Amino acid sequence: MKRQLFLLFMKKAVFHTLGCKLNYAETSSFMRQFREQGFVVSDTITQRANVCVINTCTVTEKADRECRQIVRRALRYSPDAYVIVVGCYAQLAAEVIASIEGVDLVLGSSEKFAIFDYAAENFRKEMTPRVYVSPVDEASGFGPGYSFDEGRRTRAFLKVQDGCDYSCSFCTIPLARGGSRSQSIEESVRQAEMLVAEGFKEIVLTGINVGDYGSKEDTSLLDLLDKLVRVPDLHRLRISSIEPNLITDELLNFWISSDVLVPHFHIPLQSGSDEILRQMRRRYMSGYYRNLVYKIRERAPDACIGVDVIAGFPGETPEHFEETYRFLVDLPVSYLHVFSYSERENTPAMHYEGKISPAERTRRTKMLRILSEKKRRAFIERFIDNEVSVLFEESIKNDYITGLTREYLRVAVPYREGIENSEATVRITSLNGEVAYGEIVQWGTHVIQGNGSGKSYRLPVIQ
What we know:
Blueprint: H1 2-9, E1 12-17, H2 21-36, E2 40-42, E3 51-56, H3 61-77, E4 82-87, H4 88-92, H5 94-98, E5 103-107, H6 115-118, E6 130-132, E7 146-147, E8 155-159, E9 161-162, H7 173-177, E10 181-182, H8 185-197, E11 202-206, H9 221-228, E12 236-239, H10 249-257, E13 264-270, H11 274-280, H12 286-299, E14 304-311, H13 318-330, E15 335-340, H14 358-381, E16 387-397, E17 400-405, E18 410-414, E19 423-432, E20 435-443
Parallel strand pairs: 1-2, 1-3, 3-4, 4-5, 5-6, 8-11, 11-12, 13-14, 14-15, 18-20
Antiparallel strand pairs: 7-8, 9-10, 16-17, 16-19, 17-18, 19-20
Helix pairs in contact: 8-9
């Protein structure tokens, strides 16, 4: 009872994150700042709070709209809360956000890591909102960034890179986050060691363009990985996403041969049509991408390969879409992340001719998502009756506990006490949706690559 009363009178801050894993990593750093200042923190905005922090994304128009909805939802539960909006949408549309009733503080990309410096004293609501947004070309700060689910010690996300020097015609991220910049190898290793000491067994490297790591500091992603894989007691190192043109043979060889780097590659494609890729200002053609996927598949037959693709880009004729669809049907990849093209202010694509109707964008997106479901199911099915290494998490549902394999398969087994945050060899027995079910055959075995069976498989063609 005393603890309940104590919590009742403590200051409380709630947080909501939109967008990518990098945003989640940065939100974790905000939460730590508030905790250090004596706040009780939560990632659930439907709780009553003194302060509400919303970390925004601006990749699609839907993300913009969702930001406005989240602000209003937070105020329904905490009508007197001091509302802070930060992140990419705040950088690009500060005045729009400031016009939303109830918003008190808007911080841009450079300012967001110093919330306590910019907020009103004691987070007191004022007549007009405060707006602090520096021009993006002045965004030179990096800011801390590592995240994990509160109370869990399985997988953490470590931010090592920010910003982007690319000029893809559909993307606002360089406008929102500035140029590419990297955290030093020494600081990245220090943070990784700290996370491992906290009990994390897997670290996921995040950034806007992770493959560009170190390009301005006379170093490289390969140099960073070479140091990180040596961190004692780190079981797994995963890379969230990497541009295809930045996967060199040297990097690929190191990746596949490492006992710590997992065989999971998430590689943006965006289109299987060379003409559309040129319009998108991508830095590769479809033939290069195809060869890269087959090179990975040849060297790591059981690797998980994920693909980003955009449907309905301006000028994408039915023939262009069919070209992309057939390209992906024939490509031995494991799943697709499909996005409908969204017009973004201040991007070249906004002014391209040949706009695709929203209904047609939706139809094409649905086709690709159905294809993704087939690809993912075929990928998981190949592991049935074989053994995989599973790192179990801490959520239990219907007496089952789940975890991820090195190949990014979600696996469920019957719960047993003490299984949380441990690694075991599991024989896959069945599949239900996107979750594989199995039985533990050995504790603590670290299956380095593939499915542990010594067999190799060729991904089936999906029609």
